[in-house]
Amino acid sequence: MSSQSPSRPPAGVVLLTGPSGSGKTSLAALTGLPVLNLDDFYKEATDPTLPQLPNGGGADWDSPLSWDAAAAVAAIEALCRTGTTAVPVYDIAASARVGASRLDLGGAPLFIAEGIFAADVIAQCRAAGLLADALCLRGRPTTTFRRRLARDLREGRKPPVYLVRRGLRLLRRERSVVARHCALGAHPCAQPEALARIAAARVGDAVGADVVRS
Asked: How far is the C-alpha of 68 from the C-alpha of 77, rounded, in Å?
């Protein structure tokens, strides 16, 4: 008979957020934990609820309304409670879902859910007893700008002119983006502290304990 409490999920989630280009994906890979890519829950370009930039600038992909938070939370909860879930495969260049895959935790008691909108589901994950920690990566805005632009151009995510304009817009907004994530409950930190906190949550088996500190 299992000693696991029926009210306690077998796995917990570390929500990892931060400005686009802040190094979330690289940090998540360094942990060696299973990773749920929350950017795969973007809405498609044909979705009538997709928010738009003013003056005909196209879709506002940096608005939380461009993202399906309910579907993301459902996937996180399924992973925490069952250890597996189906996730969409999203093509950013095409602004569309191009398939699906299955993520299996393989028995891991902790996993990372990373994306620029991760802070928007902190409250739901905490209320459901799923949250192990919530972190917001932060650094120098100019460094983030360079890293983001180089990545987006290399991957051909959008036309170059769009990427430069978006990058400059995000550069100006970066500090307010970090402040918003922190207001939603994420702890601001650089990579070394983030890795230390994730290691502590992993070793301490902080599933459902919500170790977020101010």
From this structure: 15
Q: In the chain, where does DSSP find H-type helix?
A: 24-31, 69-82, 122-127, 141-155, 160-183, 191-203
Q: Which of 37, 49, 122, 158 is nearest to 88 (CA)?
A: 37
Instruction: Look at residues 174, 165, 14, 39 and name the one whose alpha carbon lies nearest to residue 93.
Output: 39
Residue found by looking up tokens 């306690």 in the block: 8
3 state DSSP class of 112: strand
* pLDDT at residue 119, rounded to an integer: 97
Are 188 and 136 contacting, i.e. CB atoms less than 8 angstroms apart? yes
Q: What is the pLDDT of residues 37-72, one digit of tens each?
A: 999 999 999 999 999 988 777 888 889 999 999 999
Cβ atoms of 43 and 66 within 8 Å: the answer is: yes
pTM score, whole prediction: 0.81
Contacts of 60 (CB under 8 A, 6+ apart): 50, 51, 52, 53, 66
- 3-class DSSP assignment, residue 24: helix
pLDDT, tens digit, for every residue of 132-187? Answer: 999 999 878 788 888 878 887 888 878 888 888 887 887 788 888 999 999 999 99
DSSP-assigned states of every residue in 65-105: GGB-HHHHHHHHHHHHHHSEEEEEEEETTTTEEEEEEEEE-
With beta carbons less than 8 A apart as the criterion, state whether 127 and 6 touch: no
